[in-house]
């Protein structure tokens, strides 16, 4: 089996079960995106698939091996994850942040090899932030900061990258920049990418496959054209929407126009 | 104007052996900063050893330290037996508290954290003052051991309470504040029960003092510092990665819980040993890492080393001030470090806030 595979995976925060006996497979080489309404468990699932959460039941397999028993350093050389709005110490420069992506490749006495330096520079160049390399992170704009964090995960040099809402809080220009970077990483470096996105249209445009989650369950799974339908949007997001075709990419385009009452009736 | 694709000069000096078996990196600012601090430290040491009711010339100080005859046998006696032990002890306390503080600030990602947050001072204080209060005839030789047990016991207690299916740094900070406040209340209660003489002694101990220190104290702290500080420096990268948050650190392959426990233990042990030799000294562990961060930035490779030097320098100066301000009487070193450190810290925060 090639890829990341969740088998009967159950995840919980304290007492609350968020994901219950879910099974899914992420194929190597794809951009796969998790979408769903707020609180559906998509970020939780992403964390579970990167062993940031210990499962209550079930297992996550990477190329057939359980990620929960694998040495964490070994896993960190194969799989990187960037959580939502991470924070860095005050005064940390872009170069310093990106260089920390090399951590799983270093040891007590091998702290900064020529390869570490090369991969750090490569990652900075790939994200177009060379001119910011010496700047402290806290002096950058949201988009620049996000690219610096992505550069850190690139320096980690993994074949799989998990990103939790990498475009949130960015303006449309910076959003596209990040999405194009992700597309480039997938095409040029053959990286397998699993995303959580809020924007259905971005998800449809850049992903090979969408997995729709609702209340901790997978309710649709497939190519954007098959998954993004009026019925799915109505059922999962409780909105009426027209599904158009994006003239640029031929991906489906969802244009919502009204909420559906019932679950969440209007107060007026 | 720098071109878009032109890399700036790397911020580090890379040190590598052939075949890359061993490699390290140093911040470019580090050699100069370390050299300047060492020079300042040397100057402070010479001035401090020379100063006292019995004045010794700077040249004679250096001779007496290395054991060359100065033509006056009193020089060697005063330097070797009285001044050097307490001054070296102050230096080592500064080093130990500064490293302990830098580590605890790194773990908690909170620059207002200091070793006291681990409950060391509160725990040591409760046992020592409690013993002075409750024992019929207190045996002062027991005090260092009570301080050690109380300090480490409180740190362990805080860690165990923090650990609830995974320790959280915020919970650590809040529990630290709570336990310290509770300890302070107990200590105050005990002091109200003491005779005036004993109460005064307890107060001096609580403020921290290196009066009457011996070579045995220097050896004890020196050995612990030599055991605990080098592994801490080797874990600089771990501290850097912890600074990115638990999720990012785990994603980079750090075993967050294990590493945090090891670092907390090191930080607690360093602070606890200083308490056993000199009582509770505030501020050094808080201020020294702040100054170091201004000098070499937040990366721990340089930060730990520079914190240690800054901490050592601060306490040597504080000790000199403690002997000079109301000479021939002397103040506890804990008072002078707070007098120097308090306003300085306020100034640092004021400058940063603008």
Summarize the structure in words.
The complex is a heterodimer of chains A (268) and B (354). Chain A has 268 residues and is an alpha/beta fold. Chain A has two domains: 1-78 and 158-237, P-loop containing nucleotide triphosphate hydrolases (Rossmann fold), CATH 3.40.50.300; 86-157, no CATH class. Chain A is 31% helix and 28% strand. Chain A has a six-stranded mixed sheet with strand order 6-7-8-3-9-10, sandwiched between helices. A four-stranded antiparallel sheet of chain A has the order 2-1-4-5, with helices on one face. In chain A, α4 runs antiparallel to α5 (142-155). The termini of chain A are far apart. Chain B is mainly α and 354 residues long. Chain B has one domain (28-353): ABC transporter involved in vitamin B12 uptake, BtuC. Chain B has 14 helices and two strands. In chain B, strands 1-2 form a two-stranded antiparallel sheet. In chain B, α3 (73-108) packs antiparallel against α11, α3 crosses α13 (300-324) and α8 (215-234) runs antiparallel to α11. The longest helix of chain B has 36 residues, at 73-108. The model of chain B has no long low-confidence stretch (mean pLDDT 87). The interface between A and B is large, with 50 and 41 residues.
């Amino acid at each position: 089996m090639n890829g990341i595979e969740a088998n009967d995976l159950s995840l919980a925060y304290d007492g609350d079960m968020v994901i219950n006996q879910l099974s899914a497979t992420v194929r190597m080489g794809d951009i796969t995106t998790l979408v769903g309404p707020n609180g559906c468990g998509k970020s939780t699932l992403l964390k579970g698939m990167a062993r940031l959460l210990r499962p209550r039941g079930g297992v996550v397999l990477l190329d057939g091996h359980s990620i929960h028993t694998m040495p964490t350093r070994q896993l960190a050389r194969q799989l990187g994850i960037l959580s939502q709005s991470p924070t860095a110490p005050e005064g940390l420069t872009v170069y310093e942040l990106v260089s920390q992506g090399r951590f799983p490749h270093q040891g007590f006495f091998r702290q900064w090899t020529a390869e570490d330096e090369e991969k750090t520079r490569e990652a900075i160049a790939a994200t177009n932030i060379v001119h910011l390399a010496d700047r402290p992170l806290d002096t950058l704009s949201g988009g620049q900061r996000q690219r610096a964090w992505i550069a850190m995960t690139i320096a980690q040099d993994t074949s799989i990258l998990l990103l939790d809402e990498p475009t949130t809080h960015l303006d449309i220009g910076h959003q596209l920049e990040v999405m194009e970077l992700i597309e480039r990483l997938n095409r040029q470096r053959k990286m397998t990418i699993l995303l959580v996105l809020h924007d259905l249209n971005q998800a449809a445009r850049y992903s090979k496959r969408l997995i729709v989650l609702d209340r901790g369950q997978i309710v649709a799974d497939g190519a954007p054209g098959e998954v993004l339908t009026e019925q799915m949007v109505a059922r999962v997001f409780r909105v009426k929407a027209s599904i158009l075709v994006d003239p640029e990419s031929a991906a489906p385009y969802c244009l919502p126009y009204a909420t559906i009452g019932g679950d969440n009736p209007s107060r007026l | 104007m720098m071109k878009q694709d032109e890399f700036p000069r790397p911020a580090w000096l890379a040190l590598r052996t052939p075949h890359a078996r061993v490699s390290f990196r140093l911040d470019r600012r580090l050699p100069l900063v370390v050299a300047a601090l060492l020079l300042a430290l040397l100057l402070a040491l010479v001035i401090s050893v020379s100063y006292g009711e019995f004045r010794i010339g700077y040249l004679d100080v250096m001779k007496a330290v290395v054991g060359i005859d100065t033509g006056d046998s009193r020089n060697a006696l005063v330097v070797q037996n009285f001044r050097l032990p307490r001054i070296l002890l102050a230096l080592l306390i500064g080093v130990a508290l500064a490293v302990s503080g830098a580590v605890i600030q790194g773990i908690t990602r909170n620059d207002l954290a200091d070793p006291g947050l681990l409950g060391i001072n509160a725990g040591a204080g409760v046992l020592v003052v409690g013993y002075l209060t409750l024992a019929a005839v207190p045996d002062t030789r027991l005090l260092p051991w009570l301080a050690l047990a109380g300090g480490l016991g409180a740190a362990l207690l805080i860690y165990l309470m923090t650990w609830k299916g995974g320790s959280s740094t915020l919970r650590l900070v809040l529990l630290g504040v709570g336990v310290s406040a509770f300890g302070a209340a107990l200590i105050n209660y005990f002091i109200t029960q003491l005779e005036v003489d004993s109460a005064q002694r307890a107060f001096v101990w609580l403020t921290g003092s290196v009066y009457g220190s011996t070579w045995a104290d220097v050896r004890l702290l020196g050995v612990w510092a030599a055991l605990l500080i080098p592994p801490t420096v080797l874990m600089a990268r771990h501290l850097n990665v912890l600074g990115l948050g638990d999720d990012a650190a785990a994603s980079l392959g750090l075993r967050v819980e294990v590493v945090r426990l090891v670092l907390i233990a090191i930080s607690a042990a360093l602070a606890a040993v200083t308490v056993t030799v000199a009582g509770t000294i505030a501020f050094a562990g808080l201020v020294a890492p702040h100054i170091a961060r201004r000098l070499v930035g937040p990366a721990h490779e340089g930060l730990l080393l520079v914190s240690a030097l800054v901490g050592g320098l601060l306490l040597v100066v504080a000790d000199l001030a403690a002997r000079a301000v109301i000479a021939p009487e002397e103040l506890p070193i804990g008072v002078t470090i707070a007098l120097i450190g308090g306003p300085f810290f306020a100034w640092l925060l004021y400058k940063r806030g603008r």
